Amino acid sequence: MQATIQKKKFYIDGEWRGGVSYKDLISPYSGDVLAEIPMANEADVDSAIEAAYRAKRVMRNLPAHERASILERFVQKLSERADEAGEIIALEAAKPIATAKGEVARTIATYKFAAEEAKRIQGETIPFDAAAGGEGRVGYTVREPLGVIGAITPFNFPMNLVAHKVGPAIAAGNTIVLKPASQTPLSAYFIAELFEEAGLPKGALNVITGSGKTVGDRIVTDERVNMVTFTGSPAVGIGIRNKAGLKKVTLELGSNSALIVDEGVDVSEIIDRAVMGAFSYQGQVCISLQRVYVHESNYDAFVEAFVEKTKTLKYGNPLDEETDISALISGSDVERAVSWIEEAKNGGAEVATGGGSDGNVLEPTVILNAASDMKVSCQEVFAPIVLINKFHSIEEAYDLVNDSPYGLQAGIYTENVHTALEAADRLHVGGVLINDIPTFRVDNMPYGGVKESGTGREGIKYAVEEMTEMKLVVFKK
Ligand code: NAP
């Protein structure tokens, strides 16, 4: 238990402001109180939006090289304090420290990409004389910042998913009101501190914490907010879309990502990576490997090697460098996951390993022969649970992958180039990974889903497109 519990403050208009009420932030692993977090009321949200609204002009007028310099200085500061940043993530999210440090390294890369992208936001010239009646004109397009971006982020990548909103928003000359997940506010406040030091103009970034509904509803419905960028669960995302009216909305939602292992693949080469994809951060990754479909010729070998590797994973304290698996984000998530495993067992599926829990730690669980209508298959498990099923023909495998309300990313291992190209065509997802698991992301690639996995794309260049609007300028000579 820490000796003194830090009382955090909102970051609004370049100032640190206390709240009227506070809530304890509890470690999901130890149950210790980590900090006291201010809970925003309507007036706090209003102040944050007003500050962002007032700062619009300053940010819009900031030259690209200055926006880039602010982001570069921020990158320098985060690099200097990377270890501290990793510990914050590990503590509040129960993310094993090695994975948390990996997130910090990616966050630094994301802001670097944003600094670079700030300098290449550009339009094009239009050949007006190509249209009859267009002669005697020259014209070009520019991309202008939208204004105020409302950013709502989830708990699972509390630094890098904030970076995917704050980085491109600043690169494009927007201002931001950020509402981080209630379980992971410390990462967001830490980032705000570093932006303050990096010289970001007052009001350009505002961070407020509190109930998703109170803060979220206000951000989503306020007329001064021009765009809502949300990463989180489909249920909340759909609610946001329904309330946002004509605001631009980007939704990065959940999935039950799948992998096909074709005949002829040497399974020993892919097991380590597949196990990592299924259980990294306890399966609480939007592209966690949840469903594996293996050709009947490889099935037994794959299952045996996968289960054996799974049994070597170490459970424990997220701050321990040796830990692979720590606590789920909440006790209710453990209960939900256990009840879904029970449903699968009762329906005739086989649990090959795992299934038990200790406190908030759920054992990594491998389920065989789960029917496609079981919750562990057709919903997003967001827990260390993976299904392995057999297929007989590649056609059947495509159908199994596509039989999902979601479509974020899918992977296929195959030795056959024709199958690879056909899979790229047939899988209905935002990204197809050939000879890799679906759990792959680097921060400059376009990233986002189809179906209930969302709309819009992140990856700095693509997020900048979403956060700007095109204007046409035509000169009559
Ligand atoms: P969540 O429960 O949907 O929460 C996400 C954010 O929305 C939090 O800040 C939450 O605040 C807020 N919120 C809750 N109710 C709201 C409302 N009525 N209006 C506006 N905002 C509201 O998701 P989570 O459990 O944190 O994250 C897990 C989900 O995120 C999974 O489905 C995962 O797949 C998805 N995800 C997707 C991606 C992607 O890029 N596609 C990446 C990571 C995660 P509170 O915390 O205060 O409730």
UniProtKB/TrEMBL annotation:
Cited InterPro entries: Ald_DH/histidinol_DH, Ald_DH_C, Ald_DH_N, Aldehyde_DH_dom, ALDH-related_metabolic_enz
Gene3D superfamilies according to UniProt: Aldehyde Dehydrogenase, Chain A, domain 1 (3.40.605.10), Aldehyde Dehydrogenase, Chain A, domain 2 (3.40.309.10)
Pfam families per UniProt: Aldedh (PF00171)
Segment forming the signal sequence: none
Keywords: Oxidoreductase
SUPFAM superfamilies assigned to the protein according to its UniProt record, in alphabetical order: ALDH-like
Gene Ontology MF term list: lactaldehyde dehydrogenase (NAD+) activity
Span of domain Aldehyde dehydrogenase: 24-473
Family: Belongs to the aldehyde dehydrogenase family.
PANTHER family according to UniProt: ALDEHYDE DEHYDROGENASE (PTHR42991)
The protein's name: Aldehyde dehydrogenase family protein
